[in-house]
Target: Ornithine carbamoyltransferase
Amino acid sequence: MKDLISMADLSLEDIREILDLAAEIKEKRSQGKIIDHLRNKSLGMIFEKSSTRTRVSFEVGMNDLGGHAIYLNANDIQIGRGETVEDTAKVLSRYLHGIIARVYSHETLVKLGANASIPVINALSDEEHPCQILADLLTIKEYKNRISDMKFVWVGDGNNVCNSIMLACAIVGMEIVVVCPKGYEPDEKYVIKTKELGGVLTITDKPLEAAKNADVLYTDVWVSMGDEAEEEKRLKDFAGFQINEELIAVSKPDVIVMHCLPAHRGLEISAGAIDGPHSVVFDQAENRLHAQKAVLLKLLAGE
Model:
């Protein structure tokens, strides 16, 4: 494993190793113990999209591990003035030990990975968000003490996070139910890949029915970055596809409520759901740091 571009790049063994390492890193950080295995190593962070959790967690993560992170706004480097992705990848490989990229097009990451001689990590694209899902799995493991044999219900847009969630559920052995309005289903190629990986996948437009006996309820914004022109239409189309107290009531008594943030209370999730006793949303956000540090150690230090 050289890169992490798709959730499908990971095997079940890889995921287990990353989660175990992340849990160890998290515990040692709480004790003030230092793991500086990336001393004298540098990470380039290419950002075409704005970010809170991704940028801060990767930058802090590299610092914690003894390394250095360089923020590269796409408009400030030559890629923003027409230099090819391929040339950028080859040049940065001469300076850095790894690259993360948060990009509009998944194809940019594919080109970076194919042309870089150093690890490339998907920090979000229009198709996937694997780093988010590793943090999610870490959170699920902390609360459920397992990552398999559960019912995972996604409510909302069949977007990039949903694509990665479907792949992850297939790999680890969770049933996945995707609940979305007609016309907003996940990309067919990810549906096919999920089934090829052995996933048990259902796609429906009936939230209350889908939420019955759920172990995990998960949502994301209805209007993602790049979809702003469709905002008015999307808000109408997604009405009724909200995680709220009604869905929680028909789920399992110990259901956990998840959201990858930023959240819009009153739209995709009610205030009572995100701020209530079933919510693990801010543990999720914290776990971005620990899961990504584990990925960095695995790819940059060979751990």
Observations:
- The CA atoms of residues 17 and 185 lie 31 Å apart.
- The beta strands are 42-47, 68-73, 98-102, 120-122, 151-155, 175-179, 201-204, 216-219, 256-259.
